[in-house]
Amino acid sequence: MKLGAITNSWREHLNSESIESLVGQAAERGAMHIELRQTCLGDCETGEGEEWRPNIDELKALVTQHPDMSFNLAVAYPCLSQEAQPKSALFQSMLDAAIAVSPDAPHLRMVDPARFDSLWDAPADIPDTAMSIAALVQEAAARGVTLSMENSGQPIRSLAMLVQTVRDALPEEQGMALGLCPDPTNQLRIDPDSDPVGEVEALPVDMIKTIHFKQTRDGEAILTVDTGDVDCLRQLKALRDKDYAGAAIMEIPPSEDVFDNLSASFEYLSA
Question: d(Cα 2, Cα 4) in Å, to the nearest integer?
């Protein structure tokens, strides 16, 4: 397992420091993986929304500086709430960027910020727009890119049901390109009586493409991964028990002392 960081934790620092410098500081604190979050990439991107585009040359130069680290791209994209557009210029540019930052194992994480009217408890509850993600999976798989999904309006168990339903509808080699980025802390905001870490424990390891660690206390975000509303040590143990070998991302809030907080988070999980 690779403990890592995400660039939106450094949003405030990008006003005065380069993305190259910030990735270097995370590496100095022990990060082995960086999730490059759209809108928090400095000179490595231009535009917003449908007009967002990666700067491929800058991305390649960035990752080349850190040959011992791994990278993936993360984007906000309506992959569940709108009909899939696999040939759109935007989606194709996302695939291009995912390949640029990790040519041997490209991975694109897509977070759909939309909320749905209710939680999905059975396959019949899944809207057609969400099922259309199969077309994105096929396009990504054809280019060797793994996709992972996140949506803060649905619990882990519901998104896992969607992944399995899509996998069942596709050839195995394509379906296995789709997985999840579980975020137990997000789940408590929409389903406070649930056991999100238990839902991580129930996932097959091949469905976990990456995973986020963050923490709240009494529903309020704290600056480090530590004790709180989610048992992060239990979450870590669940991954180790599955022999999970992917990235575990510290999605800690931006702050002036974000790199000290990153170190403290790593230390808590490594104790």
Answer: 6
Provide the 3-class DSSP secondary structure of residue 120.
coil
pLDDT, one tens digit for every residue, the chain (271 residues): 999 999 999 999 999 999 999 999 999 999 999 999 999 999 999 999 899 999 999 999 999 999 999 999 999 999 999 999 999 999 999 999 999 999 999 999 999 999 998 999 999 999 999 999 999 999 999 999 999 999 999 999 999 999 999 999 999 999 999 999 999 999 999 999 999 999 999 999 999 999 999 999 999 999 999 999 999 999 999 999 999 999 999 999 999 999 999 999 999 999 7
Nearest to 109 by CA among 28, 235, 196, 7: 7
Answer yes or no: are the C-beta atoms of 129 and 81 closer than 8 Å: yes
**Distance between CA 114 and CA 81 in Å, rounded?**
6
Burial class (CB in 10 A: 0-12, 13-18, 19+), 83: exposed
Which structural domain range is residue 232 located in? 2-270
Six-digit token string for 173: 């080699």
**What pTM was estimated for this model as a whole?**
0.96
CATH of the domain at 21: 3.20.20.150
Total structural domains within the chain: 1
The closest alpha carbon to 270, from 246, 237, 245, 238, belongs to 237
